[in-house]
Each structure stands twice: as C-alpha cells, then as structure tokens.
Specification:
By secondary structure, the chain is an alpha/beta fold. 40% of the residues lie in helices and 14% in strands. The protein has one domain: Rossmann fold (3-Layer(aba) Sandwich).
C-alpha cells in the first residue's frame, strides 16, 4: 500500500440527518460506539473512524501523518468523498481534541460537535508537553520493547472498564489484538504532542456539547478551560472517562437532544 492509498478505516452507517464523524480515543476502536449508534441514527448518519494504528486502520511510516493537521486533512477528505456539505464531529478523549482541530480548521463545514472528557484537548499546553515527555513516552517505550499486549491491562485501555456493557467490552477485547504497536507508538509520540488547543479554544465558533463524566475527578479542574469556548453547553453525567460507553442512556439522550436542537442550522444536511 502506497502512502496515497493509506486511509483511515471508516464504517458508514445509515441514519436520518447530517453526516457525523465519530472519533475514538487512544486504544479505542470501532465497537467503542456500539451502544450509541442506534440513538445517533435517529438524528444523524454516523461514520465511525479508527485512528492510525488502531483496529483496521493502517500505520503510516511517515510520522507527519499522525499529527493533528494530517487528521484534519483526513476528516476533510471523508467529508468531501461522502458528499456532505456540513457535518457533526463527535469525539472521545483524544478524538475530542482532534475533532476540535477540525472545527477550527473548517468552521464553515461544521454544524457542531459533541465531546467527552478530554485532558488532551483542554490541558495547558505546557503541562501536556511535560506529560507527553514523561508518562506518554514511557508507554511508547513499553510498546517498542514488549508489543501491543503490554497495554491490554493498562488503565489507559478503555476496554478494561467493567462499567461498559459486556457485549461492547468483549468486542473491544477482540479488536485490541488488531492494534499495531508501531502505529500506537507514533500516535503517542506525534499525535499526543500537538493536541492541546490552548488559547485557540476561544476561537471555536460552532455549538459544542461537552458530556462531562463527573466521576473522573482529574478532569473536573479543566472545566474552566473548556468554558473558554463561546457556545459551550455542558451535560453532567454519572460516569468516568469513557462517558458515552459507561452511561450510554444518559449520553445518547444528551447528544440526540443537542443535535436536534441545532438541526435547523442553515445548510445543514
């Protein structure tokens, strides 16, 4: 496969409404959204994306492909190929940060976004840079030395949560074996490094719903930074980091309501 042929794996679902790109976080995969797809199909057309090196997506050799600006280019390519004038972005954790990068690059192409807890999006850039240089680099070195299985039981693997439905958890466990160590190393080193939005949060011009898992204590101090977004709405839900998978009923209701609320945005389709 040549570099030009390498594309993010995207599963396109039927639905009623505008296109929505769903972007998971680190160590996630396509089944992470399974308990949300049905509810989303009532208000949009979900397109489930897998990040480079995750699930069925390839692992490009060029490190530039992992940087946020390259993900933005991939999201825009998908929008054009799927013939959508304007879209929704739905992002979890790292995927929320990447969704905001797209929102800032193509505000006229975005109706709005639904996000989950995301330290990568809302941390102070200097604090996040230190975290990337220490904890994230340690995980990258583990992967290079021991391979993907070294992270199966890690706290950063969303599929470990016993609060996720058994069916989804089983699928995520199977898909974990599809992850590629080289792709994940590059994700840790090159995607993570550039994701915090910093002062650019104030430039986000579209409606944003932050579905806040209130039981993730370490995220709550970042809410003042999230509130820099002018058109921000926060929905507090009784969940931790994997909000949409741990409280699918609450998350589905909040997301569907928000998308319906903005359904009459001009040119949305």
């Amino acid at each position: 496969m040549t570099a030009d042929e390498e594309r993010l794996h995207a599963a396109v679902h039927d639905g009623d409404g505008p296109l929505a790109l769903l972007v998971h976080g680190a160590l996630g995969s396509r089944s992470y959204w399974d308990d949300n797809i049905g509810a989303l199909q009532a208000v949009c057309r979900p397109v489930v994306i897998e990040l480079w090196g995750h699930g069925r997506s390839p692992s490009p050799a060029d490190s530039e492909r992992y940087r946020p600006h390259s993900y933005v280019a991939e999201f825009e390519r998908l929008r054009v190929e799927l013939d959508a004038e304007r879209i929704w972005m739905i992002g979890q954790s790292l995927g929320a940060a990447l969704a905001l990068h797209y929102v800032l690059a193509y505000p006229a192409r975005v109706i709005g976004a639904v996000l989950t807890n995301s330290s990568s999006a809302f941390s102070e850039p200097a604090v996040w840079a230190e975290r990337t240089a220490t904890m994230v680099e340690e995980r990258a070195l583990e992967l290079e030395t021991h391979g993907i299985e070294v992270l199966r039981d890690s706290w950063i693997n969303p599929g470990r949560s016993t609060r996720i439905s058994p069916t989804v958890r089983a699928k995520l466990a199977g898909e974990f074996s599809e992850h590629d160590a080289t792709g994940l190393v590059n994700s840790f080193r090159f995607t993570n490094a550039g994701v915090p939005l910093g002062e650019r949060l104030a430039d986000v011009a579209v409606p944003i719903l932050l579905t806040n898992g209130t039981e993730e204590g370490r995220f709550q101090h970042l809410l003042p930074r999230a509130r820099q977004i002018p058109k921000l709405e926060i929905a507090d839900l009784p969940a931790s980091h994997a909000v949409n998978a741990q409280d699918p009923a609450g998350w589905n209701a909040a997301a569907a309501r928000f998308i319906r609320q903005h359904a009459d945005t001009p040119h949305a389709r």
